[in-house]
TrEMBL record:
Localization per Swiss-Prot or TrEMBL: Cytoplasm
Enzyme's top EC category: transferase
Phylogenetic classification of the source organism: Bacteria, Bacillati, Actinomycetota, Actinomycetes, Bifidobacteriales
Taxonomy, superkingdom: Bacteria
Pathway(s) where this gene product acts: Cofactor biosynthesis; coenzyme A biosynthesis; CoA from (R)-pantothenate: step 1/5
Location of the active site: 109
Designated name of the protein: Type III pantothenate kinase
Residues given in the record as K(+) binding sites: 129
One GO term describing the cellular component: cytoplasm
Assembly and interaction partners: Homodimer.
Main function: Catalyzes the phosphorylation of pantothenate (Pan), the first step in CoA biosynthesis.
Length: 256
């Protein structure tokens, strides 16, 4: 079994892949001050919850955008699973070309998402990841990342809204039943949802205008589920896209 770990700014998401199937996914909050023993406890508990033991783990692949967490998390994998994990980054074969000004600046999560989208859905494809930040990456028909943008995630924008205003409460980010809000809470939910969705649609349309050829739009990320049914400009919502990309990267490297 392959364990795939996505270390993001908000959450660490762990996936168990058995024979190509994703048989379990779990989330913990990303905290730089967790010890390797704490992370190891999470890992072993999640394995047991899925009916596995550390002995069932053949290998581990890690995709991280939080360097401060990597030392303790990597140490936990070595200590509790007896595996030195593969890290997605420079020197790792991905099957994807990167043609941007500084290829090393591309986040490991954006790279893994792009690999997963191209492997599963083909190209050309625009990959939209709704996480702490919202990212869009374009992969052409030949499997080359040629461009992309990064913008604020809706949760970050929402936190700024209630954090900088004395009388506005924190609200759940969800699709409202109507934009015709009649109280503060639903007014905030509707405002956040439709303003963000409008920005997503305008962004996709701008890519279409400037690229000038048809492409698929694949959405992923924890908050993508909120918007997947709100627009016909997203073709597929795939919450496990990064794990599929990491599995493809792993196969490409162990085959060599």
């Amino acid at each position: 079994m392959l364990v795939a770990v996505d270390i993001g700014n908000t959450n660490i998401v762990i996936g168990f892949l058995d024979g190509g199937d994703i048989v379990g996914t779990y989330r913990v909050t990303t905290k730089a001050n967790h010890t390797s023993d704490e992370y190891g406890l999470f890992l072993t508990q999640f394995l047991r919850m899925s009916g596995f033991t550390p002995d069932d783990v053949d290998d581990v692949i890690v995709c991280s955008v939080v360097p401060k967490v990597m030392h303790s998390f990597r140490a936990s994998i070595v200590k509790f699973l007896g595996v030195d994990p593969m890290i997605v980054g420079p020197g790792v074969r991905t099957g994807i070309n990167i043609r941007i000004d500084d290829p090393r600046s591309l986040g490991a999560d954006m790279l893994a998402d792009s690999v997963g989208a191209y492997e599963v859905y083909g190209g050309p494809v625009l990959v939209a990841d709704f996480g702490t930040a919202t990212t869009f990456d374009y992969v052409d028909a030949k499997g080359t990342i040629t461009c992309g943008i990064i913008t604020t995630g809706i949760r970050s924008g929402a936190a700024a809204l209630w954090g900088e205003t004395a009388q506005l409460p924190e609200v759940e980010i969800t699709k409202p039943t109507s934009i015709l809000a009649t109280n503060t809470r639903t007014a905030m939910q509707a405002g956040l949802y439709y303003a963000f969705l409008g920005g997503v649609e305008r962004t996709i349309q701008q890519f279409r205008d400037e690229i000038g050829e048809p492409f698929k739009v694949i959405a992923t990320g924890g908050l993508g589920r909120v918007f997947k049914d709100g627009t016909d400009m997203i073709d597929v919502y795939d919450p496990d896209l990064i794990f599929k990309g990491m599995a493809a990267i792993y196969r490409r490297n162990v085959a060599h």
